[in-house]
Amino acid sequence: MKARDAIELLALAALWGMSFLFMRVAAPEFGAVPMAAVRVAGAAVCLSPLLFIASHRAPLRRYWRTIAFVGVIHSALPFMLFATAALAINTGLSAIFNATTAMWAALIAWLWLGEPLNRSRAFGLLLGLAGVVGLAWDSASFKLGEHGVSPAVAIAACLGAAFCYGFSANYAKRKLEGVPPLLVAAGSQLGAAAALALPGAWLWPASNPSITSWSSVAALAVLCTAAAYILYYRLIAHVGAAKTSTVTLLVPLFAVAWGAVFLAETLTPAMVFFCAVILLGTALTTGVLRWPVRQAA
Q1: What residues have CB less than 8 Å from 141, skipping those under 6 apart?
Q2: Could you tell me the maximum CA-CA distance found in the chain, to the nearest angstrom?
Q3: Mean pLDDT of 233-254
Q4: Of 36, 29, 265, which Cα lies nearest the Cα of 147?
Q5: DSSP label at 76?
Q6: Higher pLDDT, 90 or 239
Q7: In the chain, N or C terminus with fewer CB closer than 10 Å?
Q8: DSSP of 156-207, one letter per residue?
Q9: pLDDT of 205-226, one tens digit each?
Q10: Residue 25 in 3-state DSSP?
């Protein structure tokens, strides 16, 4: 990987790690659904010029329904779920559960698309899932928090969001192969914004959120969604999907750092241990690491 690509990979991880910080700040005032609605609307505005590129017009007319559906399952639903989680658990914990996306994607690809799991990837999947169970067991509580959400519900929301990401990756691979990825990025945000417009307006908070919360959601839309998508697809074009997928291993590290610096969040020893287990499982599942194979004599 060239130095420029490595810098972009780190920048992408930093942006996506920062998204958990911004959600933690804004979710209590906005609420999960309105915050997600504003986020995708802002991202759609930023990315909408991509829809007018000449080479995008024909595939947009053909695939707009599928692209809109990807927007619902890849943005609208997971953004709402992570915003719900932000009401009860810290940024690092949410990001660690987000790292399971690659494992869900591999499991769904195996069950749905028939993609084979070799011994190394299967072991990584089981190891990562064991880490999820251990971390959830250590962190889950059904006691309602300050904002009416329990840690157990928050953890379930994170895992549901990661599952949505894993499913949408396989769905897009099957239904949108050959469609320009930047068109998918722009069109999906527009679809997500349309899906959340009415629910977001219906559940809009009674008191207007503070400037801090508005600034956080604006950063979510412009930096952590629109700009991050462009970086993500640039990296796929330059270094391939496999190397780009390593960003999932870096996001929790940045999320923990942002939470510690700006929100004084702390890591427990159990979080550190199970995070390491989940990231090792993710690395094996994605092929970043491979289980050593004994060579025949």
Answers
A1: 150, 151, 152
A2: 72
A3: 82
A4: 29
A5: I
A6: 90
A7: C
A8: HHHHHHHHHHHHHHHHHHHHSTTS-HHHHHHHHHHHHHHHHHHHHHHT--SS
A9: 999 999 999 999 999 999 999 9
A10: helix
